[in-house]
Amino acid sequence: MEIQIFAGFGETLVEVFLALIPLLLFFLFFQFFLLKLSGRKLLTIFKGIVLAFFGLALFLQGVYVGFLPAGEFMGEAMGSLPYNWILVPIGFILGLAATFAEPAVRVMGHEVERASAGYIPAQIILYTMSLGVAISIALSMWRILAGFPLWYFIIPGYGLVLILMFISDRTFVGIAFDSGGVATGPMTVTFILTMALGVAASVEGRDPLLDGFGMIALVALSPILTVLILGLLYGRKGREHGE
Hints:
Distance between the termini: 68 Å
Oligomer: single chain
Low-confidence stretches: none
Largest sheet: none
Helix content: over 70%
């Protein structure tokens, strides 16, 4: 079978262009009326914009050609196995791998470390968020196999979040809620979500629309919980040093 890697690449270029052009126009407006950056800085910025344009286009094309079908095929194959319980540990491992590969997670960890002057290391944030995503994907696979409704996890999870908000270190509350959005990046959505849909399509008695979706909601919830728990540990550590 011949794989046409660049089939539909023109449409992808148009999509990325239409997505970036409002940001570019917004920047130019501020440049003319407020920023007034030097020509050298402008040249550097425009070089970065061009790199971002082609990088996004190539990434999306790779997603369409590679990640989406690969995730779906894997989900269908593993969901059809007689011992499909193996999806739970596999989901855990994939959650770790996907979060480690997520660029936005690394950027957030770097920003947290810089803003806290090294008090909260970037690696700690990366490991904490990776663990949360891994647990959520393992639970999602278990939910698909067992047929649990999504609200069994969402309502208690956010109830626990509300409790932890008041007892965790205040420094971590904002970080926690941002981490939920950051964790639901392109690696998780493009690969693991399609795998979950493939699993739901292959498991008898499961509906992809009812059981396959909802995983991203858990992925957004779990890093909030793990970062708030990290805040509890930091708060306890701070009290011990204060004593």
